[in-house]
Write a structure and sequence with these properties.
This protein has about 160 residues and is an all-alpha fold. The chain contains 6 helices and no strands.
């Protein structure tokens, strides 16, 4: 179920939202901006908010299934991670109705995904769930870092949009 939800939030829903807004609603926004909007909303808002809820309510999944920690002693730390994910996820969700929050959500969420992905990468043995988390974290990082970098460049008058 975890893999299905992550694939939905990181691929199916953002791509579907971009296509719907571009093709069916004829949005005047360039595809680049639509991609930033919807990947920020779904990957930062949707995934991190839901992960935060699960980590806060049910810390055993993250502790056991992702990190392979059998002890309940990790639960307070996982819950705090969940609160951080809830906060970042809330910003990502808010970015849909407050476009001025989008860059902050993409930057903070993308940075978080990149750092978390690197932690997974350099951690010794990984189970299949952690490898999947690592790969998806790094993919989202690349997408959001690219978006944030191009927006920052545009703010300095450098137009390098694809």
């Amino acid at each position: 179920m975890y893999v299905v939800i992550v694939v939905l939030l990181l691929a199916v829903l953002p791509i579907g939202s971009i296509a719907a807004e571009h093709i069916y609603f004829h949005s005047p926004e360039p595809l680049f901006d639509l991609a930033g909007k919807w990947f920020t909303f779904w990957a930062v808002g949707g995934r991190l908010f839901l992960a935060g809820l699960r980590q806060t309510i049910q810390p055993a999944f993250t502790a056991r299934q992702i990190f392979g920690i059998a002890s309940d002693e990790a639960f307070p730390v996982v819950r705090e991670l969940g609160l951080a994910n809830l906060a970042m996820g809330a910003l990502g969700l808010l970015s849909l109705t407050l476009p001025q929050a989008r860059m902050a959500a993409a930057f903070v969420g993308g940075l978080y995904y990149g750092l978390a992905g690197l932690l997974h990468l350099f951690r010794g043995e990984k189970n299949a769930t952690e490898r999947f988390a690592m790969i998806t974290d790094l993919m989202v990082f690349v997408l959001l870092a690219g978006y944030a970098g191009l927006v920052i460049a545009a703010n300095y008058g450098i137009d390098i949009r694809l």
